[in-house]
Design goal:
By secondary structure, the protein is α+β, with helices and mostly antiparallel strands. The chain has one domain: 3-Layer(aba) Sandwich (GIY-YIG endonuclease), CATH 3.40.1440.10. It is about 45% helix and about 20% strand. It has a 3-stranded antiparallel β-sheet, with helices on both faces. A hairpin with a 6-residue loop joins strand 1 and strand 2. The radius of gyration is 13 Å and the shape is globular. The two termini are about 20 Å apart. The relative contact order is 0.23.
Length: about 100
């Protein structure tokens, strides 16, 4: 049986734009939904469509705990985490689709 994987991720409108922090068990599908405005909500309202950061977890409990912590971080702390993983602020969606 394949173990389920969970992801905490940050979407951005631009380098100094609006951020969205989320958690999911299907990162490819969820980012596609954000990019294509499938559901009404924050990312659709503010045009947040670029996956700039993500972390992988083996269980939902730890992923949710991490998401809650990230949401409380300052903007500067989120930017530092993004730049450590993705210094060019590239859209990571294509890399997760492979």
């Amino acid at each position: 049986m394949q173990q389920k994987t969970f992801y905490v991720y940050i979407m951005a409108k631009a380098r100094n734009g609006t951020f969205y922090v989320g958690v999911t068990s299907d990162l490819v599908k969820r980012v596609w939904q954000h990019k294509n405005d499938v559901a009404d909500g924050f990312t659709k309202k503010y045009g947040v469509k670029t996956l700039v950061y993500y972390e992988i977890f083996a269980d939902a409990e730890n992923a949710i705990r991490r998401e809650k912590r990230l949401k409380k971080w300052t903007r500067a702390s989120k930017m530092k985490a993004i730049e450590a993983m993705n210094p060019q602020w590239l859209d990571l969606y294509d890399t997760i689709c492979k």
